[in-house]
Design a protein that fits this description.
The chain has 356 residues and is an alpha/beta fold. It has 2 domains: 1-102 and 257-356, Isopropylmalate Dehydrogenase (3-Layer(aba) Sandwich), CATH 3.40.718.10; 119-253, Isopropylmalate Dehydrogenase, CATH 3.40.718. The chain has helices at residues 14-32, 45-51, 57-64, 89-98, 122-125, 160-175, 191-207, 218-227, 239-250, 291-303, 308-323, 329-335, 342-355; strands spanning 2-10, 35-40, 68-73, 103-109, 129-135, 145-147, 152-154, 180-185, 212-217, 234-237, 260-264, 270-274. The strands form 2 sheets. The chain has a 10-stranded mixed β-sheet, sandwiched between helices. A two-stranded antiparallel sheet has the order 6-7. Helix 1 packs across helix 10. It is globular and about 50 Å long. It starts with a strand and ends with a helix.
């Protein structure tokens, strides 16, 4: 197979972890006989410094012309003034909108080797395996914003069509898993949530009767993610709730450095990135955990290139590296082993891939 992948390293540790992601893509191409071409472009703070904008037109053009996009991270202290006219995060919002990506998939699974990396008891975590599906282009993040000297407002808007399409994505995932879908809202307070609940109920009743739907208020979901996380299979929710809940859920796996994500639209092209930030405090030190980026590559192979066997091979290779004790600093101490560097972790995955 031939495919073109646009790589957006971004800021902080982004260039380091995407280097390992490209290393894995090259190993997959070698092992399975594919031809992957990678093209690098600017986004975030690096793009602001070079061009004055967080998403240059040339970057969006390269992304639109690719089969998939692999992204590192954006942001850092240099661009951290909330009053700034141009901010790195604007690049993320703009590329999601520019590519029509409305569904953010964040799988959360706990590796048995890393049960001690979380602050929760191992018996609470054992068997956790869920996917959170976050609506990505609507809600309060994209609503009209107003501010004067005495007040400020952010408008939260959702349409029936936006709710329908994200619920369908989540329901299809649930249908291929344990057939349990939890829709998270704040319907006791918010009108947008009451619409969300009504629409999701109708879509599930009419189109996915084989999937069990339950509704949960967002505050209750936040509690139960910590109290009984194994109860969840697929969670679907709106933009801001999903942003917050997925960061919380990442702690089940012990570190944000372990969790990938995929942002998808109507076609096969998607944007794949680790859920962690740019971690400027460790940037350039060669100690960042690349596993979330490598697992994002697995999602890229599965969702954009339809290479399920290759995706599973990458996931097995990551699990093999972890089982062998190749653990970066954010998870090494819990397992009582010496920390592995970023490149060493990537090399361990490559060895596992080529040995299959």
């Amino acid at each position: 197979m031939r495919a073109v992948i646009t790589v957006l390293p971004g800021d902080g540790i982004g260039p380091e972890v995407t280097t390992e992601g490209v290393k894995i893509l090259n190993a997959v191409a070698k092992r399975f006989g594919h031809d992957f071409t990678t093209r690098e472009a600017l986004i975030g703070g690096a793009a602001i410094d070079a061009t004055g904008t967080a998403l240059p037109d040339t970057t969006l053009e390269l992304a639109r012309g690719a089969d998939a996009v692999l992204l590192g991270a954006v942001g850092g202290p240099k661009w951290d003034d909330p009053r700034a006219r141009v901010r790195p995060e604007q690049g993320l919002l703009a590329i999601r909108k520019g590519l029509g990506l409305y569904a953010n998939l964040r799988p959360v699974a706990v590796n048995s080797k890393l049960l001690g990396a979380s602050t929760l008891r191992p018996e609470v975590l054992n068997g956790v395996d869920m996917i959170v599906v976050r609506e990505l282009t609507g809600g309060i993040y994209f609503g009209e914003k107003r501010r004067d000297e005495n007040s400020a407002s952010d408008l939260c808007v959702y349409t029936v069509a936006e709710v329908e399409r994200i619920v369908r994505v989540a329901a299809k995932l649930a249908r291929g898993r344990r057939k349990k879908l939890t829709s998270v809202d704040k319907a006791n307070v918010l009108e947008t949530s009451r619409l969300w609940r009504e629409v999701s109920t109708r879509v599930m009743r009419d189109e996915f009767p084989e999937v069990t739907l339950s509704h949960m208020l967002v505050d209750a979901c936040a509690m139960h993610l910590i109290r009984r996380p194994t109860d969840f299979d697929v969670i679907v929710t709106e933009n801001m709730f999903g942003d917050i809940l997925t960061d919380e859920a990442s702690m089940l796996a012990g570190s944000m450095g372990m969790l990938p994500s995929a942002s998808l639209g109507e076609g096969t092209r998607g944007l794949f990135e680790p859920i962690h930030g740019s971690a400027p405090d460790i940037a350039g030190k060669g100690i960042a955990n690349p596993y979330a980026t490598i697992l994002s590559v697995a999602m890229l192979l599965r969702h954009s290139l339809s290479l399920a066997a290759e995706a599973e091979a990458v996931e097995r290779a990551v699990n093999g590296a972890i089982a062998a004790g190749v653990l970066p600093g954010d998870i090494a101490s819990a397992a009582g082993v010496a920390a592995a560097g970023t490149a060493a972790a990537g090399d361990a995955v490559v060895r596992g891939l080529l040995a299959l």
